[in-house]
Write a structure and sequence with these properties.
Layout: E1 3-5, E2 12-14, E3 16-19, H1 32-44, E4 49-51, H2 60-69, E5 78-83, E6 85-87, E7 90-91, H3 95-109, E8 114-119, H4 127-143, E9 147-154, H5 159-164, E10 172-176, H6 190-196, E11 199-203, H7 224-239, H8 244-253, E12 260-264, H9 268-275, H10 284-294
Helix pairs in contact: 1-2, 1-9, 3-4, 7-10
The structure holds nicotinamide-adenine-dinucleotide (NAD).
Length: 310
Amino acid sequence: MQYRTLGKTGLRVSALGFGASPLGGVFGPVEQEDATRAVRAALDRGVNVFDVSPYYGDTKAETVLGNALAGVARDGYCLATKVGRYGPDDFDFSAGRVTRSVDESLRRLRVDHVDLIQCHDIEFGSLDQIVGETLPALRRVREQGKARFVGITGLPLAIFPRVLDRTDDVDVVLSYCHYALNDDTLAGLLPYLRQKDVGIISASPLGMGLLTGQGAPAWHPAPEAVKAACARAAARCRDRGSDIARLALQWSLANEEIATTLVGMASAEAVDKNVACVGAEPDGPLLAEVREILAPAYGVTWPSGRPEND
Ligand code: NAD
């Protein structure tokens, strides 16, 4: 495993992080036993970051992850969860709700603190409220020892400078679906984030399923043209005796400015496959072919949140 420093937090995090949303059943049903085996396999192979949210599977992912981590030494892993998003259209970034939410998450996760507490998908809220109310509430949570560091997450890249230019309360940003083979537009924001000294987490290097052999799940928000281009790229990899998920991960994991890349995993087999991608060179000629196939869909994203935050 490779380890990188998560910005000013100083945390040494594994280049590959465990995305726990699948433990909530969002990509298909998952048994506790399989989830526990996946989490333990990840720990054994040096993965030390686990990211979850009360939103995933309507709190189920936190409960399943908490069960899977029970008995593991608390200083052996970095645990990240979120506040503010509780359903597809259920957001509450008020100080009262997020403060209660942390306590609820700690109970489900069976720990007395998390390493990172993040405002989940802030583009759905008022950025004024995030800066003026939510982040100050999380600063108090931090002072109480219930979280060590604070982060913000969301899809539109524009939200990050809009918040970071107005507060010093953010240690980490989590961007998703923007550092993958079909969309690496996060790269353009890296110099700014470096200058702000925030830790950078990139999630969904497989585009939430787009860059896998099985393809995107039915709920996937990408436009059809993106899904079709990714399916063509996946087929080309298959024809070449390769696997688009492996190629995509090898490529995304190589950027050392990104402290950790979160991949959704729910089985020990997926953990093994993905850990093997750390430090491995992508196949250059195949990468070039895939890039060419994906070119018409490059950087195409989808609306998320309030129009004024896009
Ligand atoms: P992802 O791009 O990691 O894709 C996950 C899908 O790919 C799942 O179906 C998984 O089973 C499958 N997969 C994993 N490894 C594979 C392999 N080797 N071969 C084939 N398929 C494979 O998307 P994700 O799970 O949505 O994102 C990763 C994590 O990042 C999430 O679990 C979550 O923790 C975090 N995340 C956070 C936000 C946010 O805060 N707004 C948004 C998206 C993701």
